[in-house]
Amino acid sequence: MRECLARVQSRTRLTQNGGSEQENLRHLGAAVRAAVPVAFSRGVLYSLLDPPHAVGAVMAPDERLLRMFSYYRDAELRGATLLLKLMQRLDDPDAQVKLAKHLEEETHHAWLWTKRITDMGGVPVRVDDGYQRRIGLEIGVPKSYEQLFALTVVVEERAHQRYLAHAASPTVDPETRAVLHEVTKDEKWHIAWMENKLREMAGPDGQTRVDELLARYREVDRRVFRELEAKEREAFGFSLSETRAS
User: Best-predicted range by mean pLDDT among 5-9, 109-113, 223-227, 231-235?
Assistant: First the structure.
């Protein structure tokens, strides 16, 4: 943003002396168009080439952001479904307590994304090719508790990394950043307890097996996420995972 302002200032500096007010406004408008093609505000995409004609004009929510947040919502819901399956099958009192808390937080995250979407004036979009579905197609149906726990660890790691990267992007609005911070704060605990329980179940002789399983799933995760990043670049012209606040 500082770079954009500097570009506007450099383009308008010469018009400040001797030009009429009308000429200065015209040059300023051209400078803004060249320096800042688009701006995100409160989850709505405003084009500076076509500003609202009146203060308070209603702008349609950016459909790309609605789809992105629907992807986030879908991932949280599918994660919650996986946790519920574990709760129904696993006979471990300690795990039952932690799974219940984990499940509550996952569904709360899904609600936060649902609320963000509706606050923007949209509705959740059906997602048939989201992260969870893609990684499931690559890995197949987990056949053991170890596989279920390992898959959940890797999925939670990806969520944590993605939310942090998105929150650091200079394009994110304050309301969305607040949601990102809220959901991110739970992810570290999710990862820690799931991996600890996974290694506990595997026992001393199963640690190498766990390491290999996690490595295999992380490789699948990287491949799947590269595909989703390509879709993001196609939609936005860049990937939020590549941007950082200055």
Answer: 109-113
Which residues make beta-bridge pairs with 46?
A: 39
Residues in the chain: 246
Q: Residue 165 class from Cβ within 10 Å (0-12 exposed, 13-18 middle, 19+ buried)?
A: middle
CA 5/CA 98 separation, integer angstroms:
49
Any idea which residue has 């932690």 for tokens?
98
Measured over the CA atoms of residue 167, residue 135, residue 105 and residue 71, the dihedral's sign is positive
Please answer whether residues 184 and 164 qualify as being in contact, where contact means their C-beta atoms are separated by less than 8 angstroms: yes
Query: What six digits make up the tokens of 209?
Result: 């097996």
Q: Has residue 190 got a pLDDT over 90?
A: yes
pLDDT for the residue 59: 65
* Tokens 């987990």 belong to residue: 142
C-alpha closest to that of 153 among 92, 59, 236, 83: 83
CA pair distance 30, 15, nearest whole angstrom: 12
Query: 3-class secondary structure for 20-74?
Result: CHHHHHHHHHHHHHHHCCEEEECCEEEECCCCCCCCCCCCCCCHHHHHHHHHHHH
Q: What residues have CB less than 8 Å from 73, skipping those under 6 apart?
A: 110, 113, 114, 117, 124, 127
